[in-house]
């Protein structure tokens, strides 16, 4: 799926529930696949700021920052 369509779908999903962290992490993973690391980091940092115990987001962000 192209990144523009993914961004549109993500905005629709988050407009209904802005704190749906699982969707946010999935979106970040797709951004990474598309090569948009900076936006993925931004998305993950927002998730972690809301939900400090979301381990999957922490691990993915750490992996991004290490590489």
Task: Kindly describe this structure.
With 67 residues, the protein is mainly α. It has a single domain (3-66), classed as Serine Threonine Protein Phosphatase 5, Tetratricopeptide repeat, CATH 1.25.40.10. The protein has 4 helices and no strands. It has helices at residues 3-16, 21-34, 37-50, 55-66. Helix 1 packs antiparallel against helix 2 (21-34), helix 2 (21-34) runs antiparallel to helix 3 and helix 3 (37-50) packs antiparallel against helix 4 (55-66). The chain is flat, with a radius of gyration of 11 Å. The N and C termini lie far apart (24 Å).
Summarize the topology.
Layout: H1 3-16, H2 21-34, H3 37-50, H4 55-66
Helix pairs in contact: 1-2, 2-3, 3-4
Q: What is this structure, in a nutshell?
A:
By secondary structure, the protein is mainly α. Helices cover 81% and strands 0% of the residues. It is flat and about 30 Å long.
Count of individual beta strands: 0
What is the CATH top level name? Mainly Alpha
- Helix tally equals 4
Overall spatial form? flat
SSE order, one letter for each helix or strand: HHHH
Mean pLDDT: 85
Structural class designation: mainly alpha
Beta-strand content bin: under 5%
CATH fold-level name: Serine Threonine Protein Phosphatase 5, Tetratricopeptide repeat
Helicity, as a percent range: over 70%
Please compute the radius of gyration using only Cα atoms.
11 Å
Q: Identify the CATH architecture.
A: Alpha Horseshoe
What is the straight-line distance between the termini?
24 Å
The CATH homologous superfamily is named Tetratricopeptide repeat domain
């Amino acid at each position: 799926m192209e990144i523009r369509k993914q961004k549109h779908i993500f905005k629709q999903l988050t407009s209904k529930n802005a704190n749906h962290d699982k969707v946010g992490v999935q979106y970040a993973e797709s951004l990474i696949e598309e090569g948009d690391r900076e936006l993925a980091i931004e998305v993950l940092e927002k998730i972690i700021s809301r939900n400090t115990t979301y381990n999957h987001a922490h691990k993915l962000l750490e992996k991004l920052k290490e590489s």
